[in-house]
């Protein structure tokens, strides 16, 4: 009997058929989709929602909280949110979803399951939004399953996907929608550093590979969640010297214990320095280096200075809400 990271029925079936195992336990797989057996029995194996190994469920359990799933919002909320979406008994509507990140894709999927006609508008050439960025870290590449599964369901449900479409209010209204769902996500917030912030590199650019990594790097993480840690893992993987600076009194407070372990393993394995309770107040150019002035978040006193090749900043996101407000104010000619 084996129960560890066998997340799909095909692998389980193969292991039993080859005589490797007598029985397979699929724990997290059933947290992601408790209807695996029903879907297989009904010949709907391709509809099984795959576990993507985010370990969000176990982090919550070990923190004494309810079991929920990063990939399935209904898990742990069954009293108020169904796993199987019932079709509407009312009028079928035309739903326009702007943005094909995880939120937009899920809104489109649920709307289509309800029986509505759905059109999705996406500015990029691919769906996924920040999930596609997060999956660039090799260790977390399975996260792309959040996107792939939803795209497969949207195809099954006949949802119209329009890529490379940067929608403005007029474009949306021209589709004559009954309902508009704005899921346009955000962009990296750029106001973490009081002076000289233009000298810094956004964490997203490091993770995506759009920005090269220098030899001596300081990353200022004023968010404490996965994006900053994904950037650190990307940086040390390229052999750079790294110091992580955070104003928090504890390191990466938004990441659960099990998820924190591999990040720390990578950082310590590459000799990275972690400095807590410290802010990067300002940056200035000094020759071909960048001088980072460090201050205390408690009394704003200067506590040090670093001279590095590159400063990377993670400060969460600024919502791209222009379309939302434009649609609210839109009046047809």
Count of helical regions: 12
Order of helices and strands: HHHHEHEHHEHEEEHEHEHEEEEEEH
The percent range for strand residues is: 15-25%
Overall mean pLDDT stands at 95
Query: How far is the first residue's CA from the last residue's CA?
Result: 67 Å
Shape annotation: globular
Largest beta sheet, briefly? 5 strands, parallel
Q: Percent helix among the residues?
A: 25-40%
Q: Strand tally, please? A: 14
**Structural class, please?**
alpha/beta
Strand order of the largest sheet: 6-13-7-8-9
Radius of gyration: 23 Å
Ranges with pLDDT <50 over ≥5 residues?
Answer: none
Could you characterize what this model shows?
- The chain has 333 residues and is an alpha/beta fold.
- The protein is built from twelve helices and 14 strands.
- It has a five-stranded parallel sheet with strand order 6-13-7-8-9. It has a four-stranded parallel sheet with strand order 3-2-1-4, with helices on one face.
- Strand 10 and strand 11 form a beta hairpin.
- Helix 5 (102-113) runs parallel beside helix 7.
- The longest helix has 13 residues, at 145-157.
- The chain is globular and about 65 Å long.
- It starts with 8 loop residues before the first helix and ends with a helix.
- The relative contact order is 0.11.
């Amino acid at each position: 009997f084996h129960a560890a990271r066998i997340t799909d029925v095909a692998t389980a079936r193969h292991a039993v058929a080859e005589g490797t195992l007598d029985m397979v336990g699929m724990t997290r797989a059933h947290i992601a989709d408790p209807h695996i057996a029903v879907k297989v029995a009904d010949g709907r194996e391709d509809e099984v929602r795959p576990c993507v190994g985010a370990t969000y469920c176990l982090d919550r359990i070990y923190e004494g909280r309810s079991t929920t799933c990063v990939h399935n919002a209904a898990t742990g909320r069954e009293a108020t949110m169904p796993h199987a979406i019932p079709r509407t008994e009312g009028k079928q509507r035309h739903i326009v979803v702007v943005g094909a990140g995880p939120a937009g894709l899920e809104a489109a999927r649920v709307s289509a399951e309800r029986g509505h006609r759905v059109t999705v508008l996406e500015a990029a050439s691919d769906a996924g939004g920040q999930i596609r960025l997060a999956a660039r870290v090799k260790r977390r590449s399975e996260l792309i399953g959040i996107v792939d599964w939803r795209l497969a369901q949207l195809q099954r449900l006949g949802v119209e996907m329009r890529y490379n479409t940067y929608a403005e209010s007029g474009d949306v209204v021209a589709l004559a929608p009954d309902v508009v769902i704005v899921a346009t996500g955000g962009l990296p917030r750029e106001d973490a550093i009081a002076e000289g912030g233009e000298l810094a590199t956004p964490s997203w650019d490091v993770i995506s590979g759009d920005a090269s990594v220098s030899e001596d790097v300081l990353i200022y993480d004023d968010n404490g969640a996965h994006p900053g840690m994904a950037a650190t893992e990307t940086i040390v993987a390229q052999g750079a010297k790294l110091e992580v600076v955070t104003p928090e009194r504890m390191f990466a407070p938004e990441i659960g214990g099990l998820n924190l372990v591999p990040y720390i393993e990578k950082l310590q394995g590459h000799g990275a320095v972690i400095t807590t309770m410290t802010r990067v107040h300002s940056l200035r150019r000094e020759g071909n280096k960048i001088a980072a002035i460090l201050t205390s978040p408690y009394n704003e006193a200067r506590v040090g200075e670093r001279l590095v090749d590159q400063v990377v900043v993670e400060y969460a996101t600024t919502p791209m809400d222009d379309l939302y407000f434009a649609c609210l104010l839109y009046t047809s000619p």
